[in-house]
């Protein structure tokens, strides 16, 4: 098996291992909860999930890679790139919000309850660490580090798309699958523009961290509005009750319509910022390669998409298909539950 094909095979095997480890954890946790009549806390669920991801990834990297940090592209980035990445994250926010709203038309919002539970129990600092810091480090090391860079040996665009899809599937619920896949695509392009996984860790942290801050901030904002209204003899009870309930389909559709212009503007500005980031890091040729038909390596001028026999295709992709099917089954089970 050629080195490029071996990279894809290794990536698929790693993904299957992650799924195989994660699948029984769901039943173990459910069994413990039913047996002892209690529900594990949201923060403990997150920590268990993150550990089930990072432990096998670390073992895999130590066994297969001589230089782990080089392989996952753990490289420093300049301060201007970091600043632009934060702006880029917020430019993409409207698009991600629209995709999230689309998923909520047919799937349960799985994350908001988790964030709220943790916010009710811990300080904002602890919540940011559990919800933003841990996933930013662990999930990026896994999906934009181990998986994407294995697939990248075959083809960069292939690597970005596949690692993004698997990132979405590993969330195991239809709500997060859609917007996580979109975020994975954005992160994949960003790491190609910077050649550093720190860049996607920053953006991942910005998305999750902002959600935590909003969750903490909204109740305080409601209290301020209610207090100001009470001083002026106004009743805001109905409005605040409405704000605290889940959004109806009509509300979601209205949100999508309102957000479309912001998403378009964000995409345009974000594209310019992304190119500027690539230029700052001397990576514009790698970024432009993603939209070109020529898929040769710009540094070695070698073909990045070698031919494979049917036998190699079967051996390579069976682990991937099995892992994807299991993730979809788990998503259906979560939705039913």
Name the poorly predicted regions: 236-245
Question: CA-to-CA gap between the ends?
Answer: 43 Å
Q: What is the average of the pLDDT values?
A: 84
Strand content: under 5%
- SSE arrangement, N to C: HHHHHHHHHHHHH
Largest sheet: none
> What's the total number of strands?
0
State the share of residues found in helices, binned by percent. over 70%
Q: How big is the Rg? A: 21 Å
SS content category: mainly alpha
Number of helices: 13
Which overall shape is indicated by the principal axes computed on the Cα atoms? globular
Task: Give a description of the structure.
It is a single chain. The protein has 337 residues and is mostly helical. It has 13 helices and no strands. α6 (124-152) crosses α7. The model is unreliable at 236-245 (pLDDT under 50).
Itemize the secondary structure elements and their pairings:
Elements: H1 3-36, H2 42-64, H3 68-71, H4 79-104, H5 111-121, H6 124-152, H7 156-169, H8 174-194, H9 197-231, H10 237-244, H11 249-280, H12 284-289, H13 310-336
Quick overview:
With 337 residues, the protein is an all-alpha fold.
Features:
337 residues, mainly alpha, 13 helices, globular
């Amino acid at each position: 098996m050629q080195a490029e094909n071996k990279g894809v095979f290794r990536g698929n095997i790693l993904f299957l291992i992650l799924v195989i480890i994660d699948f029984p954890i769901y039943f173990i946790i459910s069994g413990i909860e039913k047996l002892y009549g209690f529900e594990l806390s949201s923060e403990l669920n997150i920590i268990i999930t993150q550990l089930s991801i990072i432990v096998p990834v670390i073992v895999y990297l130590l066994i297969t890679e001589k230089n782990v940090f080089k392989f996952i592209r753990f490289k420093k980035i300049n301060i201007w790139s970091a600043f632009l990445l934060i702006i880029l994250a917020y430019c993409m926010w409207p698009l991600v919000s629209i995709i999230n709203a689309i998923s909520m038309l047919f799937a349960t919002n799985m994350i908001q309850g988790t964030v709220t539970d943790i916010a009710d129990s811990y300080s904002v600092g602890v919540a940011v660490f559990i919800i933003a810091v841990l996933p930013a480090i662990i999930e990026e090391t896994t999906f934009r580090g181990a998986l994407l860079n294995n697939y990248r040996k075959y083809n960069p665009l292939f690597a970005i798309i596949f690692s993004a899809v698997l990132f979405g599937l590993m969330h195991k619920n239809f709500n997060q699958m859609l917007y996580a896949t979109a975020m994975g695509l954005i992160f994949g392009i960003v790491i190609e523009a910077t050649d550093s996984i720190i860049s996607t860790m920053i953006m991942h942290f910005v998305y999750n961290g902002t959600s935590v801050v909003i969750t903490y901030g909204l109740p305080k904002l409601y209290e301020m509005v209610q207090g100001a209204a009470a001083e002026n003899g106004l009743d805001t009870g109905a409005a605040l009750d409405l704000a605290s309930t889940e959004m109806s389909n009509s509300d979601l559709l209205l949100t999508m319509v309102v957000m479309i212009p912001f998403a378009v503007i964000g995409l345009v500005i974000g594209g310019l910022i992304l190119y500027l980031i690539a230029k700052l890091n001397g990576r514009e040729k790698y970024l432009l390669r993603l939209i070109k038909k020529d898929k040769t390596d710009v540094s070695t001028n070698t073909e990045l998409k070698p031919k494979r026999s049917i036998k190699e295709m079967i051996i390579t992709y069976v682990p991937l298909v099995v892992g994807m099917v299991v993730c979809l089954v788990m998503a259906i089970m979560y939705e039913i539950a």
